[in-house]
Write a structure and sequence with these properties.
The protein is of the alpha/beta class. The protein is built from 30 helices and 27 strands. The longest helix is centred in the middle third of the chain and has 40 residues.
Length: 1075
């Protein structure tokens, strides 16, 4: 581009000007096809250097080869929300369509993933993750103390905080991070999964037999849970985040970042914390005297001590409130129960994929695209388990009588037999002495009977634990003697390594059910089996099989990570398409005053093409909360939980969406206006509510006693969201603002909403007491508020303010009412609708299923309300909705709809994640970039249509200052684009938002000057004149007009004069005078 010479050239070279193809070509301006917005991304692989499960090993070169394609450029996708019905968004209980083709919504922004592989080659790091899994796990199904049966569940709340600390200590918290771990586990032992809530077995035990045990534990334990230490303040972002990252970005893409040293330092820091957690857990287990359900009671005590959250609310209602209100008449999960999953999305900027953990089935109950099954996540055992077994058989065949391998094998066999026999005899002798003591105590007069069967069960569990511990100690001693630090150890070391993994997994499950005395995580971290203990052995066919399995495994893993990119880290955004709302076209000039270009430009009210965008960035966002109550059709709610919407918690979470720089400086202001209305006392609201009610039937299995409905068909009431919003906007007592007077649909909806609801509030206050305590003072305050809303609506026209109405319907009916048949909360354009039912047990299930059971609706619609705000404010969609650019289709994928955040479908969560906040900020920037690029391209198109002429050259010579001003505005727009892109590299969207106003101002003025220049050139072409003064507009037109007017006047006089003179001569007076 040659625009750099504009500031120094005087445009005197006419020949060069005339030889250019167009004015845009002479200036050096070109159309912008795309802007690349960087997305920093890290891949952390733990347990893939021969230190994880089944010794899976991948070199750095292999990782780069398999995951290099993730370092790519992805065009940002926009999905029309107006076409996204329940069948398309996947939330309804009926058949999910799976995918559909949306209308073309072009975006100039392409997301450029800048990826790095974080190299961590230390056994101690993955061993620390294994220890955390061990400490935070407990059995899914309650067992007797010490029993090691069934799967385990890891407390995801504790583990998420643990991973947060790991990411922050490595200095990766200001980048997106995908963590893949491969912990050591035995395929012979049921595995584990991650869950925030409790299992059905735990809930049943706590609500019945374990309630007294829980109360006693809460009374005895006073100490708090151990706190994590502050993260290491030496990451790559700590001292000079900007300089370091920019320097790294200049390197080759998909580079390798070795953080082995930092990870070792983190291990030393986190080890004391894990020791405190283990001690704290053991103290709680010992304090619980009952042998069954101990771990469940301890977990319930931890949850209750956290005081806040939906899980705590559900447990408090189960224990101290009305537990029957938590149950649904349908076959659904308990509100405190959620899915056990093998992957997790944190509330920070990371995603975790555990290749050893098990997972449940989840997704729409009737199936559809993207449903997750137990085989969706590739497990290491499924790909490499058979290979490991074949290797062990080959090693056994290779042992010959008399060689070292056979000698060591016999030595180990003898030592193991002696140790097991000694341990068994010792445990049996101890049991016999204990049994004699029981019998003597039972023989005493008045002594209570002894439950010998229960005592035998407890002894059997401890006996099996002792044998496993003795066998593990034997293998440890042998490995330290013959395998530790050996470069090429004997093949027997590989067999021992597999056996140790099985014993550790078995003992870990025993510890999850009770107290364990065996140290499963010694200082050597079980890195004592020598180098190459898991190397492939045998013939070439086994090696070839291993290579093929490795390739299949990595292909599946790369696919899962790619899906995470498209659905969680950089998901598509939703937009609304409606009349009067959408993409704001380039500004048209207002009537100028004085010199050209001095008039203020204002946006027009029409749409441009088929473009629609998410809500524009506004400095001030006002949430008008209308809490609508209904006193009719009341039921006895009993004051239990789930009957009131927590407005304070809603406001607290929404405030976290406020855009701010990393330094803490706020670039956006949120306001909340609260109003209480009563349907019974407001005719307009009552009418709007009545006409929007719909009745429908659903095929949902019912378990209500005494009902025999064919095929489980149930009737339900719902609210037609668009019908309700239509009546609320237009109002029953006031006229809506004419569409022609609206600056945009968003401004119009806010203004008309205020004109529809507020007059009804004033009428209710002025006519009679509505029961809400609205006095004359309140009416005056409401009138003042209306004036402020009008002023705020005027500010919205300038792009400085925005209002989002939030309507909360607090319904006390005997029958539950949902929105559009399936929702407790939904965004309709920029209006958020939320419904809160007192008759919660009648709400039909969500249509989501987990592990064969329908998921119940949460106690409060707070999560649905928060998700609706995300959609209304920034077009943020739930993570299961994606876009396939190849097929140009919207698709479903439920794999990454996990985590304890507001958009999760598998766990309870009422908090926004950092990635969701980033999505809102990125949406603001995408909107501003698309708008500015479209505006600049239209200006460039106008200049490209102007062919150089002598007249145009003379005009430019006479108005160089104006022409250079146009170029300066274009250059300023380019600089703002660069600033946004550079700040996006550090995810500082708050700082980048400072450029939004600059983008809009300079791009609009550039287009305004280009439009004036284009119009002037058209005039010059039509007139064929030599010069045109830019200050006076079009002075050469005046002589032509004067000459034309004079000629026309002369012609008129010449044509009219004979008629006039003839009339004069015909007059009688004149005739006599002539005579």
């Amino acid at each position: 581009m040659r625009k750099h010479r504009i500031h120094s050239s005087d445009f005197s070279n006419r020949e060069e000007f005339l030889q250019s193809d167009s004015l845009a070509d002479y200036v050096g301006l070109e159309r912008v096809d795309a802007i690349h917005m960087p997305v920093p991304l890290n891949f952390v692989f733990l347990g893939f250097d021969g230190d994880g499960h089944l010794d899976v090993t991948y070199t750095t070169a292999q990782l780069q080869g398999w995951f290099g394609h993730l370092d790519h450029v992805l065009p940002h996708a926009r999905i029309e929300l107006s076409e996204l019905s329940c069948a398309e968004d996947g939330y309804c209980a009926g058949l999910v369509h799976g995918s559909y083709r949306p209308k073309a919504l072009h975006s100039y922004v392409h997301l450029n993933f800048t990826c790095q592989v974080v190299a961590i080659k230390r056994r101690s790091v993955i061993a620390t993750f294994e220890r955390a899994i061990h400490i935070f796990s407990r059995p899914v199904v309650l067992t007797v103390h010490g029993e090691a049966t069934g799967a385990a569940q890891v407390d995801a709340t504790k583990f998420e905080a643990f991973v947060d600390h790991f990411v922050a200590s490595l200095g990766l918290e200001f980048q997106y991070t995908q963590i893949v771990i491969n912990p050591v586990w035995s395929p012979m032992v049921p595995n584990y999964g991650y869950r925030v809530g409790l299992s059905a077995s735990e809930i049943d035990h706590i609500g019945k037999a374990g309630k007294e045990q829980l109360m006693r534990l809460l009374a005895d334990l006073r100490d708090d849970e151990p706190a994590l230490p502050p993260p290491i303040q030496k990451g790559m972002w700590r001292d000079s985040r900007w300089t370091i990252f920019v320097a790294q970005s200049a390197d080759a893409k998909f580079s390798v970042n070795d953080l082995t040293g930092a990870s070792e330092e983190w291990v030393q820091l986190i080890d004391p914390y894990l020791k405190r957690e283990d001690d704290h857990r053991n103290r709680q287990l010992k304090a619980s005297l009952e042998p069954t359900g101990t771990a469940a009671v301890v977990q319930a005590a931890r949850v209750l001590k956290r005081l806040t959250g939906p899980l705590t609310s559900a447990l408090r209602e189960e224990l101290f409130g009305q537990p029957e209100k938590l149950l649904s008449k349908f076959r659904t999960m308990h509100p405190a129960e959620d899915c056990v999953v093998g992957n997790w999305v944190g509330r920070k900027r990371w995603m975790l994929l555990d290749l050893t953990a098990g997972t449940s089935d989840w997704g729409p109950a009737t199936g559809g695209e993207g449903v997750v099954t137990k085989n969706t996540i590739p497990r290491v055992d499924d790909y490499f388990g058979s290979l490991a077994r074949d290797q062990r058989v080959e090693r056994a065949k290779g042992r010959v009588e008399g060689d070292q391998e056979m000698t060591l094998h016999e030595e180990l066999k003898a030592e193991r037999s002696a140790t097991m026999a000694s341990t068994s005899n010792s445990e049996y002798q101890g049991f016999m002495l204990q049994k004699q003591a029981w019998e003597a105590a039972a023989a005493a007069p008045g002594a209570p009977p002894v439950d010998t069967q229960r005592a035998m069960e407890l002894w059997g569990a401890k006996y099996r634990e002792a044998l496993a511990r003795a066998e593990l100690d034997t293998y440890e001693r042998f490995a330290l003697r013959h395998c530790n630090k050996q470069v090429n150890p004997v093949t027997l070391c590989a067999d021992i390594k597999q056996d140790v993994a099985g014993l550790r997994a078995k003992l870990s499950k025993i510890a999850a059910a009770g107290v364990l005395t065996t140290e499963l995580f010694p200082k050597h971290n079980w890195d004592i089996f020598g180098l190459g203990a898991g190397a492939w052995a045998g013939d070439s066919r086994a090696n070839e099989k291993g290579r093929v399995q490795h390739d299949y495994f990595m292909a599946e893993l790369a696919s899962l990570l790619s899906r995470g990119l498209r659905h969680v880290i950089a998901p598509p955004s939703g937009v609304w398409r409606s009349e009067g709302r959408g993409f704001v076209p380039p500004l048209s000039p207002s009537p100028s005053k004085g010199q050209g270009g001095g008039g203020r430009v204002r946006p027009t009210a029409q749409t441009y093409g088929s473009r629609s965008v998410a809500g524009p960035f506004s400095k001030l966002v006002t949430f008008e909360i209308y809490h609508v109550w209904e006193n009719k059709h009341a039921v006895d709610t009993g004051g239990g939980l789930g009957n009131h919407f927590d407005v304070d918690a809603f406001q607290q979470q929404v405030m976290t969406l406020r855009l701010a720089a990393k330094t803490g400086a706020a670039h956006q202001r949120f306001e909340f206006k609260m109003r209480h209305l009563n349907i019974a006392d407001d005719p307009s609201l009552a009418a709007a509510f009545a006409v929007s009610l719909r009745s429908s039937s659903h095929e949902v299995v019912s378990t209500e006693e005494g009902t025999e409905e064919p095929e489980g068909v149930t009737e339900s009431l719902s609210i037609d969201s668009r019908e309700l919003v239509h009546h609320l906007r237009n109002g029953m007592l006031a006229k809506a603002t004419p569409p022609s007077a609206r600056a945009s649909e968003r401004t119009a909806s806010s203004a008309s909403f205020a004109q529809g609801i507020l007059p009804s509030l004033l009428a209710a206050a002025g006519s009679s007491d509505s029961g809400l305590g609205i006095s004359t003072y309140a009416a005056r305050a409401a009138a003042n508020e209306m004036e402020r809303n009008r002023a705020r609506a005027e500010a919205e026209k300038e792009g400085e303010g925005m209002t989002i109405p939030v309507v909360i319907l607090q319904l006390n009916r005997k029958q539950a009412i949902l929105i559009d048949e399936h929702y407790n909360g939904r965004a309709v354009d920029d209006v958020v609708l939320v419904v809160m039912n007192a008759a919660r047990e009648d709400e039909h299930p969500t249509g989501m299923m987990c592990n064969g059971a329908l998921q119940s609706r949460p106690l409060s619609p707070l999560r649905d309300a928060l998700a609706a705000v995300l959609q209304a404010l920034g077009g943020v969609l739930p993570p299961h909705i994606g876009y396939n650019p190849g097929r140009k289709q919207v698709t479903h994928d439920w794999l990454w709809s996990v985590g304890a955040h507001a958009l999760s479908v598998t766990s309870m969560g009422v908090e926004y994640s950092d990635m969701q906040r980033d999505a809102v900020g990125r949406s603001y920037l995408l909107d501003a970039l698309d708008l500015s690029v479209e505006t600049v391209n239209r200006g460039v198109a106008l200049l490209a249509a102007q062919r150089p002429t002598h007249a145009l050259h003379r005009h430019i010579m006479n108005s160089q200052a104006t022409f250079k001003t146009m170029i300066k505005h274009h250059s300023a727009t380019l600089e703002a684009w660069k600033a946004v892109v550079t700040l996006s590299l550090t995810l500082d969207y708050g700082k980048a938002a400072e450029q939004i106003r600059t983008l809009r101002f300079n791009s609009e003025l550039f287009y305004s000057h280009a439009e004036r220049l284009s119009t002037t050139n058209e005039h010059l072409h039509c007139l064929g004149r030599a010069s045109l003064s830019s200050d006076e507009g079009s002075p050469l037109i005046r002589p032509l007009l004067y000459t034309s007017a004079a000629l026309a006047l002369g012609a008129a006089v010449y044509a009219v004069s004979p008629l006039v003179m003839g009339a004069v001569f015909k007059r009688p007076g004149n005739q006599r005078r002539l005579i």
